[in-house]
Amino acid sequence: xxxxxxxxxxxxxxxxxxxxxxxxxxxxxxxxxxxxxxxxxxxxxxxxxxxxxxxxxxxxxxxxxxxxxxxxxxxxxxxxxxxxxxxxxxxxxxxxxxxxxxxxxxxxxxxxxxxxxxxxxxxxxxxxxxxxxxxxxxxxxxxxxxxxxxxxxxxxxxxxxxxxxxx
Amino acid sequence: xxxxxxxxxxxxxxxxxxxxxxxxxxxxxxxxxxxxxxxxxxxxxxxxxxxxxxxxxxxxxxxxxxxxxxxxxxxxxxxxxxxxxxxxxxxxxxxxxxxxxxxxxxxxxxxxxxxxxxxxxxxxxxxxxxxxxxxxxxxxxxxxxxxxxxxxxxxxxxxxxxxxxxxxxxxxxxxxxxxxxxxxxxxxxxxxxxxxxxxxxxxxxxxxxxxxxxxxxxxxxxxxxxxxxxxxxxxxxxxxxxxxxxxxxxxxxxxxxxxxxxxxxxxxxxxxxxxxxxxxxxxxxxxxxxxxxxxxxxxxxxxxxxxxxxxxxxxxxxxxxxxxxxxxxxxxxxxxxxxxxxxxxxxxxxxxxxxxxxxxxxxxxxxxxxxxxxxxxxxxxxxxxxxxxxxxxxxxxxxxxxxxxxxxxxxxxxxxxxxxxxxxxxxxx
Lengths: 167, 429
Prior knowledge:
The complex is a heterodimer.
Chain A: H1 4-26, H2 33-52, H3 57-69, H4 73-82, H5 106-116, H6 126-166
Chain B: H1 22-32, H2 52-65, H3 77-92, H4 96-100, H5 106-116, H6 118-122, H7 130-135, H8 139-157, H9 177-183, H10 201-214, H11 216-228, H12 235-248, H13 268-290, H14 300-325, H15 336-340, H16 350-368, H17 406-421
């Protein structure tokens, strides 16, 4: 029986390792915490989008958004090629609108959702927007799960060593 | 080698990147990071605790409790298997189980279960409904899944001049929608170009329903035939039959059978409108399955609210977790190829693994002595049977003298991957 959610996570992990290696070789040392966090976030987002392999709007938008953010244009371009980019880099830098509070109406909420989902602003059809959101949620969830697991494992081993040392 | 980077998830390291002005890139990143790290996550039920430790409480408890939630019907093997792995991992490693507790709140279990619904949903790509019934205990979900299979197959059968082969989609399908996404080339020029008449998936249905107006006689005759069967009390099955019908329809027929319900308007405008509305409501229902905690919510606006909250909370979690992970300070020296191969773990005893790991841990401890040197790294003897996470020698992660590179971090990730990739219950510590 195919367990696709695990496969999603597995795919994400593989891509994440690759992106981390790519970023790692191009980032100067030492980094402060914020830069490190940004690097991790960027690599994780790129890995999530690459795991989706570019057949959705959000993955392509995420790649080009991340590509615009970094100076690593060669890497971003390579990812875009491999992701069978069909949007031809049309995505501009999408602003995050996280503090918007929609009081009424489906229209406002739809606009807010468009601002949240990468590439959503380019989608006019509400139907398709919801479909993209679904897909995006799945991969976002996979990303969160993997990151959480890694952090938990690390936390645990740290506790374990601390306990051993304190004995 | 570069070409295989993202297609095959190649095991080899990517080549060294040339980074012109990466420092300016750093500055750009910092300045453009508009969202501050928000440790207090959204007001979503499952993330109401604001402390870092409590987030792990809830995370681990959700992982632990999800195999045995009170209202879960989705004990799907793979997801359950992974959770079993995590539970064993946590349970066997000392008193973690007591520390974090199993606070199997309804929220957490709901949180875990909707994600298991997409995996069974992906089975619909093979257009079988019986495995669905086996996989999920929820008959309503199976029925919805069957309906979605009709949607998906409908888009397959419709006229598509996709420039790319459909089979290029990776074997991973996360939910039912993905077959449709891959098969419909309209998503390339985006939905706003529907009036341009590009033929594909559901959008061609719109065009065809409009063309129905041009042939009123044919339309009315088909509707008459359908309305006669309106007395059938089981309308849900009828819509499925409808789906089956469209599945078998020759793709070059240019009208779609839409069944008019009893007591409803039957002109083509409202039919098309109803079709569209039904599609949207189906999507909303699927979103309800995916987004936890919106079962009680009805209405589009509130549903969208929930979805927005969920996406925001997930994004904030990613932000927070990446901040958290930036303090990971582990290093493992091993062969990446060996790691990424699947057959690295024979199905061996959990306890044996555990003991081996502990033995190596203790030996590492004696090796390191009382050094609190953050730069000290382990190069354990890697056999094909055990891989350990080397010990973190620093007490705290607050003060950094020298942050390890991201390669270290990626190494630790790849070993964590074996917790997930192995369906057997071997433990990796």
